Amino acid sequence: MAKGRILYVNQEIAPYSPETPNAILGRYLPEYVQNHDREIRVFMPRFSFIKERNFQLHEVIRLSGMNLIVNNCDHQLIIKVGSIPSAHMQVYFIDNEEYFTKCGNLVDESNLLQEDSDERILFFGRGTLEAVRKLAWQPHLVHFTGWFSCMIPFYMRRINKENAFFKDTSTVFTITNDPFNGKFRQEIDKKLKNDGATAKDSKLFQDLDYMNLCKAAITYANGIVIGGPDANPELVEFARQNKKPRVIVDYNEDRDTYYTQINKLYDYLIGSSINQ
After folding, report:
1. Does the predicted TM-score (pTM) go above 0.70?
2. What mean pLDDT is reported for the chain?
C-alpha cells in the first residue's frame, strides 16, 4: 500500500526547464519518492518557453475551464499534462493565456520581476490547489520549491476555511538561491485581502521582495529542505532561528543520502495521518 500522497509544486522541472538545482530536484526527487511506494502529483507553471509540441503536452479537459478571480477579474484556468517516460511520471502544467502563454520566463532579461508577477504568483498558487481539489486527490504533504510557489501555504489555509480539504496536510519548503531583483507591486496586499488574507498574513507579505516572500513561506512551513550548497544563508539562518517547531534537512551532495533524508522527513510529518 502507498506510504502517503505527496504533492510537488515547483517553478522549474527538468527537462521542461534548464537544469538549475531547482529543476534537477523537481525532476529526480519525485521519481525517487514514487519508487519508494508513495503516490505523487507534480505541478509547475506552463511558461511560454515550454513548447507544447516539443513536449507533447495536451489539455486535461476535465480539470480545465474554471475561472479564478484575481484582482476582481475572471481568468480561465487551463491544465495541461506531459510525461517523463523514463521516470514513469506525469507533470501537470498551470496555464492561462494572459499570465503564461504570452509571457516568457519568471523574470525579464535584467532579472527583474515581470510587471504582472504579483497576479501570476497568486494565480499559480491558487490554480494548483484548485486543480488538486478537482482531482479529488487529498495530499498528506505538499512540498513546494522556488519563489514562484511561495503562495501555496497561504491558499491552503484559505481553502481550509471553506471546506478543510487540506486540513491534515503538512508542508515542506525548499530553501534555494533563486533571487529576483525588485519588489512586487504594493497592490498585492489588496489582492491578497480580496482572497481572505488576515492581518497576520498582511504583515508577513509587506514590502514583498525575494527575501520577505521566502521568509513568509518558511514561517508557514512544517518542514524545511536546504536545496543546495549555495542556499541563501540568510534564509537558512532564519529557518533555524524560527520558533515554530520544524525539521530541517541539510543538503547532501550524495543524491541517494539526500533523498533518503527527505523521505524520512516526510515520514515524520505525515505520521499517523496515513491510513495503512
Report:
1. yes
2. 89
